[in-house]
Amino acid sequence: MDVEKNISEIEWLERIFALPDTRRPRLADREAANRKHDQMYAANPWFRLWKRYGVCTRAQSTQACDP
After folding, report:
1. Domain segments of the chain as ranges
2. Where are the alpha helices (DSSP H) in the chain?
3. What is d(CA 35, CA 18) in angstroms, rounded to the nearest whole number?
4. Cα separation of 19 and 65, whole Å?
5. Is the dihedral of CA 26, 28, 32, 38 positive or negative?
6. Cα separation, 13 vs 24, whole angstroms
7. What is the dihedral of CA 11, 13, 15, 16, to 10 degrees?
8. Is the pLDDT assigned to residue 67 strictly greater than 60?
9. pTM here?
10. Which residues are CB-contacts of 21 (< 8 A; sequence separation ≥ 6)?
11. pLDDT confidence bin for 51, thresholds 50/70/90
């Protein structure tokens, strides 16, 4: 068992995962972010007012802005 090799491989993986993701966000990524946002602010009265009476800029296929 080569401990030094294992340590260097782990450090290499840590450097790789520390790099920012440069890929363009996909539609599924945006939908997931919208769902997370909606869940985070679901109890906020201002968010509920916006969701009910505000202008929705999201695609209608997500149905996220419907009351």
Report:
1. 43-67
2. 3-18, 27-40, 45-53
3. 26
4. 34
5. positive
6. 22
7. 170
8. no
9. 0.49
10. none
11. confident
